[in-house]
Amino acid sequence: MEFKDYYKTLGVDKSATKDDIKKAFRRLAKKYHPDKNAGDKASEEKFKEVTEANEVLSDPEKRKKYDQLGSNWKNYQNAEPGGSEWYRNYQGTQGGEGAHFSGNYDELFGNVGGFSDFFESFFGGGMSQSKQARPRKGKNYEASLSISLEEAHRGTEKEFTIDGKKIRIKIAPGIEHGKKLRLKNQGSQGIAGGEKGDLYITIKVESHPLFERNGNDLYYNLNIDLYTAILGGKKTILTLDGKKINVNIPPETENGATLRIKEMGMHYPDNNDLRGDLYVKINVKLPKQLSTREIELFKELSLLRN
């Protein structure tokens, strides 16, 4: 059984500070992480080694006891089977805090199973099956996905790639901005046989140049000329569905008036058979660069009104 030099594994000196160890571990863990090296057994083993080294050296108490052990490795190596008993005897001969160590290796190193034989035999005299690594669910991934207002209205499908795997997601009609979708088992790999984490996707609905959404209703700004506002008429607009509809403008419609068109808004997220309404806000545009004759006519109208 080979002695594990945890300092060498992390590439740090024995005098390394806690921050030095932390930085070294983060760098190596990122480099050898299974999610970035799918199918690479060598990287997976390296990742386990740096994790084991960090487990010991990042904790002051664990590191202290490891250093005491390491300096007497040859004595342990020549000891009778059951070296953990030798370690307890060794600890009893030391002064200070170490003399009170009772040999509870779960307390010393935590229930961290899945470590090397060095850990299991040298520190624990062989872990029982109950002390092996417990399956743990992998970490969740989070991402955002931008879609157009049209896509949010009618629903859509999107395809993207995670860890080399193509994933297709179906977005239901009427989805709202900020809605989170959960894709089960599309996150990080589980630990010790645990299930994979999940992928959470936050939907971001892009702003639209013509329509503004409020709940399930839509708002549309419609510019009309002065004459249509006074005499009434019809204006054609293109809905979010891509359909052309005629908006009836009543005579003497004031600037800022809002016309309601039923069931021409967004689909309801929980019931696609229902739709919100479309509100059309009227913006009356005054004529510019009037001709001499137009000015005379407006003067006549003014005299008639007064």
Polypeptide structure, described:
This protein is an alpha+beta fold and 306 residues long. The chain folds into three domains: 6-131, DnaJ domain (Helix Hairpins, Orthogonal Bundle); 141-205, Sandwich (HSP40/DNAj peptide-binding domain), CATH 2.60.260.20; 211-305, Sandwich (HSP40/DNAj peptide-binding domain), CATH 2.60.260.20. 33% of the residues lie in helices and 25% in strands. It has eleven helices and 13 strands. The strands form five sheets. A four-stranded mixed sheet has the order 6-7-13-10. It has a three-stranded mixed sheet with strand order 1-5-4. The protein has a two-stranded antiparallel ribbon with strand order 2-3. Strand 6 (211-214) and strand 7 (217-225) form a beta hairpin. It starts with 5 loop residues before the first helix and ends with a helix.
Brief characterization of the structure:
It is built from eleven helices and 13 strands. It has 306 residues and is α+β, with helices and mostly antiparallel strands.
Task: Draw up the topology in text.
Elements: H1 6-10, H2 18-32, H3 41-57, H4 60-70, H5 73-77, H6 83-92, H7 105-109, H8 117-123, E1 141-147, H9 149-154, E2 156-162, E3 165-171, E4 180-183, E5 199-205, E6 211-214, E7 217-225, H10 226-231, E8 233-238, E9 244-249, E10 258-261, E11 267-268, E12 271-275, E13 278-285, H11 292-305
Parallel strand pairs: 1-5, 7-13
Antiparallel strand pairs: 2-3, 4-5, 6-7, 8-9, 10-13, 11-12
Key attributes of the depicted protein:
306 residues; alpha+beta; Helix Hairpins; HSP40/DNAj peptide-binding domain; 3 domains; 4-stranded mixed beta sheet; 3-stranded mixed beta sheet; 11 helices; 33% helix; 25% strand; elongated
